[in-house]
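The material for today's practical consists of a large collection of protein records. A record pairs a protein's sequence with a compact description of its fold. Instead of coordinates, the fold is spelled out as a row of discrete tokens. We will come back to this pairing of sequence and fold again and again. Here is such a record, shown just as it appears in the course material.
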Amino acid sequence: MIRILRIPVKQDMEDLLAWHYDKKGIFSVKSACHVLDDGRTRDRCRQRGEGSGSTTSPKAPEFSWKRIWQLRCPQKIRHFLWRFTQNSLPLRMNIARRGMEIDTRCPVCWRLDEDGGHGFLRCKYVKECWRAVNLEGIRIRLSTLSGAEQVSDCILSLKEEEKMATIGLLWSWWNARNKANAGEQRRSTDEVTFSARMATISSYPLQMSRDLGQYLETELADWIHHQKVFGK
């Protein structure tokens, strides 16, 4: 109490609310994100047994978030990948960790608990999608990694075509998963992979995008015709 009373104050100034983590006292989402990242870094250091002044082990390289925001794809996909990397998507295990009592089984296969590893890489139905777009080798490689940041770092280090195909598939699968979670019929592998190709079409050069768009429109028309003829 004595220390508080000794803090010098200006008598001619009105009291105001100030954000402690900004030198001007102004709150911003950017500064709040920095505070959150700093807290997560400290938590990781504690888990590894590192003190604030530890020099016994090299510091892990910081994840480069700019690589996500510089991707040539729709903003909603960049935002999805950002949340994927933060492991903040509303997967059932993530929701349960926040104290909600829910069925944590995967809403697509209903076999195992739905965390990021199962939901995007190990569910038997998502495996079919990875194989359908010839990315099974990448799926296996990602399955050996230990965290969302490592998975995203590996994806962002792929060649451009593989990188965008992988991101498109993750995005498309997440949409399909959400529909299943809402009680809708599970999307087929063909529907998921078609949506994945359409999701990142803007990442291609203009002429290539036009050619690919025409091709995909033809594929969609053929698929709709097939459903009308054989789906009855």
About this structure: The two ends are 79 Å apart (CA to CA). Residues 75-230 form one domain. Confidence is low (pLDDT under 50) at residues 47-57.
